[in-house]
Design a protein that fits this description.
The protein is an alpha+beta fold. It is built from twelve helices and ten strands.
Length: about 375
Amino acid sequence: MTHFEKKEESDSTSHENKNHHEHSKHHEHHEPKTEVYHDHKHKSEVHKPHGEKKKKSMKVNLWKVFTGVLAILLLVSLYFNFSGTAFSSEETVATETLGFVNSVLLQGQSAAKLLTIEEKSGLYNMKLSLSGQEIDSYVTKDGEIFFPQGLMTNEEVETSDASAQAAATVDVPKTDKPVVDLFVMSHCPYGTQAEKGILPIVNLLGDKVDFELKFVNYAMHGKKELDEQLNQYCIQKEQNDKFNAYLECFLGAGDGESCLTSTEVDVAKMKSCVDKADKEFKISELFADQTSWQGGKFPQFNTHDQENELYGVQGSPTLIINGVKVSSARSPAAYLDTVCGAFSEQPVECTESTGVSTETYQPGFGYEAGTATAASCG
């Protein structure tokens, strides 16, 4: 099945209602939102009155973006003329464009895959997957001109680094034991990036925080995502002492089967739980009924549907602390700062811990260092 993953400037890619039109449900979010941004070196807050509109801020390096676009368009001008005739269908445009990308631009060194294609702003918006990364590209309806990246003209463009984002808009209530919920899709590269960043902090703080991994109430990455999320749901619920170790293993390579063995999960117990949860939340039943899918594209996954509705969760990752939707940079040090800001009285782990990594892991599986991003799936 196809899917797409959208970039955004906040981890909180949440909106009002899962039953909204798919344009608001699964496309890049442009709603006004209030968020909390934390930097592990500096804390600052900017309070916005409720309902005040603000433009989303998209961190880009203008020189790199336009240099890259111009270079690709130069290649397009030299090579991109499929047949001289106009295309009449999305399918034909997608097939021909994908062929051009793989044969001319990538020259067989790698292979891009089509995730989705749909009309947007008078063009076809093509979501491509390349080496585990999503490319949000555009092509004219006649298939003659390919744009590897689009910039929204109604967004405020800033040239500063993504890690220097301005701070936030709402206060997180302080409690003795913060409740931390991270909503993800198990195979969303930006969700796994967030999990890799926050998991060391969950291990560091231990039972001083009430942490739970929860799932967005729709899946964008096929049946494998439904199956993995059921496994994780049951391991966390019934074998919680093994869950963090299992999750850390799974985030390394996405190989759940080997991680079940290496972390000594009781597989029979897990499968019994999975069968019950599957029936309770109708995971397989809803997967088989495509008329029930969100926008006809994404099957439901309702283990945490009530919380999704409560917080307006709509994308992966979404971070909720003490009932408030917040945003954080994704390095372990940044997450430590974010979570520690929710304590009534900070424990020594917040004030005296050393050696907490300031590096952001790459999106997707694996623990290689990556670049800061606020992108999300949803």
